[in-house]
């Protein structure tokens, strides 16, 4: 009996070994799928897509908002209604005028939105009692504020360059003598600002009012969106439909931007504070507030609010819709065999 034992064990090994060898190792495609379907990375990628889509959709209104914002007292080049200003932009610069600065904006907004959405989902983990547990309004506000500061700090140099690109070809009288054929592109402008306007600090000029505005803006945006998302969700369902997501995004954007808009005006003013032909001479944030109130009144802090509100609905709606579509697609890949 004992002499047969080794043969039985050997036979068992013989039967089990081929089954191990027949199990195929995971493919590179499967490994890649397992990585990108993780919630944080999926949100990161979806945020980048959402940013590029939303900014391109509203590029003409976004540029017009900036032109209105930087037009101080005494300048009348763009002192007109939104339709007339858009018509002026089209006549003088054509399609390129509508898209001026949008390339840089997309280059900026992809990492900006990716970091914003990704970091929001990262910060949420510190407040969740269990993974995926819903947060209250205060927690969403805090997570959104932290996500806003993180994203703007990471991409601010591209934001200031984008502002310069948006106005350098506009028909402001003080800029017309420069000649459009000599206007620098994005990378050249970055280098030029670094060399001639104070090094790295030039690329972060205006970041204080930006951070002061972006933290409550992003916080309010996420908080309002989550609340509106529940409002637009039909009874008996876990998620709203596409129209519900669009509506929630539009309301969230309008509320957040209306409350924090003066910070956006201050940001744009400081971003061109040393720009030749357009520069302001603000010594500090408080000096800027004093000067604007003195010469432009309270309305000075809301210049460009009309095109801004006009762009909020399509911008935020397309942003949230494309974000959720992309994120759901990526996280849903785990259910497919590759």
Automatic annotation (TrEMBL):
One MF annotation (Gene Ontology) recorded for this entry: metal ion binding
Subcellular localization, as worded in the UniProt entry: Mitochondrion inner membrane
Stretches forming Solcar repeats: 38-126, 135-231, 240-329
Cellular component per GO, a single term: mitochondrial inner membrane
Protein's membrane topology: Multi-pass membrane protein
Keyword 4Fe-4S part of the UniProt annotation: no
GO terms classed as biological process: transmembrane transport
Chain residue ranges for the region called Disordered: 1-21
Cross-referenced Pfam families: Mito_carr (PF00153)
Keywords: Calcium, Membrane, Metal-binding, Mitochondrion, Mitochondrion inner membrane, Repeat, Transmembrane, Transmembrane helix, Transport
Family: Belongs to the mitochondrial carrier (TC 2.A.29) family.
PANTHER family for this protein: SOLUTE CARRIER FAMILY 25
Function: Mitochondrial transporter that mediates uptake of thiamine pyrophosphate (ThPP) into mitochondria.
Protein name: Mitochondrial thiamine pyrophosphate carrier 1
């Amino acid at each position: 009996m004992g002499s047969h034992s080794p043969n039985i064990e050997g036979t068992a090994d013989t039967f089990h070994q081929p089954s191990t060898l027949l199990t195929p190792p995971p493919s590179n495609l499967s490994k890649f799928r397992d990585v990108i379907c993780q919630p944080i990375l999926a949100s990161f990628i979806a945020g980048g897509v959402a940013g590029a889509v939303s900014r391109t959709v509203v590029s003409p209104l976004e540029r017009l908002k900036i032109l209105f914002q930087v037009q101080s007292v005494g300048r009348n080049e763009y002192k007109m209604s939104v339709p007339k200003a858009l018509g002026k932009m089209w006549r003088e610069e054509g399609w390129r005028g509508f898209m001026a600065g949008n390339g840089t904006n997309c280059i900026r907004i992809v990492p900006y939105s990716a970091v914003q959405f990704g970091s929001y989902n990262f910060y949420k983990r510190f407040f969740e009692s269990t993974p995926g547990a819903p947060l209250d309004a205060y927690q969403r506000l805090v997570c959104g504020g932290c996500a806003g500061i993180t994203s703007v700090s990471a991409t601010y140099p591209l934001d200031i360059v984008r502002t310069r690109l948006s106005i350098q070809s506009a028909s402001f009288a003080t800029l017309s003598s420069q000649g459009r054929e000599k206007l620098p592109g994005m990378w050249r402008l970055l280098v030029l600002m670094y060399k001639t306007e104070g090094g790295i600090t030039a690329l972060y000029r205006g970041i204080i009012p930006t951070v002061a505005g972006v933290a409550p803006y992003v916080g309010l945006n996420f908080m309002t969106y989550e609340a509106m998302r529940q409002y637009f969700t039909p009874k008996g369902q876990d998620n709203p439909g596409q129209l519900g997501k669009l509506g929630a995004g539009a309301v969230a954007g309008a509320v957040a931007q209306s409350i924090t808009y003066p910070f956006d005006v201050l940001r744009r003013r400081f971003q061109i504070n040393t720009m030749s032909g357009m520069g302001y001479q603000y010594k500090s944030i408080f000096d800027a507030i004093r000067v604007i109130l003195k010469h432009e009144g309270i309305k000075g802090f809301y210049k460009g609010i009309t095109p801004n509100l006009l762009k909020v609905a399509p911008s935020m709606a397309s942003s949230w819709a494309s974000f959720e579509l992309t994120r759901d697609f990526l996280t849903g890949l785990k259910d497919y065999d590759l």
